[in-house]
Design brief:
The chain is of the alpha/beta class and about 250 residues long. The chain is built from 10 helices and 8 strands.
């Protein structure tokens, strides 16, 4: 059985003071065994988060990494640097990276290779825009993103990789794919991964896109939704913990 995973993506938010309060809330309410929990702060706050979260069961991740191992690449952060700060996870290919910073499927693959080589567990994001969905191209767009993965990486390499389906039209907009829409795409993702030679049923697939405490239980109740990549709601300890609790309840059959 695939264990539920809830990951908080803080994006470019936070301060030392606000982070301390948020992290304290997480430490005082550690996750239960039924669900895995991770947070991904901005690079500059990884050290603060690593220190605060030590031993509490909440894992640490980064929002991005460099496609280079090291050297004269001003402003870049390597996989080995993330390891130094106790990161276990790293988000790769988020739609905001693809849209605002021109990250192609090829660059996403290079970053995935760096993450895997360093022992980091990548969360690779796929998803379609509103225009693409309304044009009937959602599966075509997501399928092409998945094919790039299966053509470049082996099934063995995929064992430690998580896929996050994030409909771009639902990120930070307050709009959310219905549980039925999300489930339909998650089934498609598994089928496409299997067609590419991976074991689709063995890959955890998260949903991301305006996940809240109010809709989490309905989303997690779908058989192919293995958790969430949470944006805005992860910046408030109570909201994020409520989403984690919803995942735990579903996993425990409550």
């Amino acid at each position: 059985m695939r264990k539920k995973l809830v990951v908080g993506n803080w994006k470019m938010n936070g301060s030392l003071a606000s982070n301390a309060l948020l992290l304290q809330g997480l430490v005082e309410n550690p996750p239960v065994d039924a669900v895995e929990v991770a947070v991904c702060p901005p690079f500059i706050y990884l050290g603060q988060a690593a220190s605060a979260l030590e031993g509490c069961g909440v894992m640490l991740g980064a929002q991005n990494l460099s496609a280079f191992a090291g050297g004269a690449y001003t402003g870049e952060v390597s996989a080995s640097m993330l390891q130094d700060l106790a990161c276990e996870w790293v988000i790769v290919g988020h739609s905001e990276r693809r849209a605002y910073f021109g990250e192609s499927d090829a660059l996403v693959i290079e970053k995935l290779r760096m993450a895997l080589a360093a022992g980091l567990r990548p969360i690779v994001c796929v998803g379609e825009t509103l225009e693409q969905r309304e044009s009937g191209l959602a599966t075509q767009v997501v399928g092409a993103q998945l094919d790039a993965l299966t053509q470049a990486l082996s099934a063995a390499e995929a064992v430690s990789l998580v896929v996050a389906y994030e409909p771009v039209w639902a990120i930070g907009t307050g709009r959310t794919a219905t549980p039925e829409q999300a489930q339909e795409m998650h089934v498609f993702i598994r089928q496409r991964l299997s067609a590419g030679g991976w074991v689709g049923e063995g890959v955890r697939v998260l949903y991301g896109g305006s996940v809240t405490a109010d809709n989490a239980s309905l989303l997690f109740g779908k058989p192919d939704i293995d958790g969430a990549l949470v944006g805005g709601a992860s910046l408030v300890a109570g909201s994020f913990l409520a989403i984690c609790a919803a995942a735990a309840r579903v996993s425990s059959g409550i």
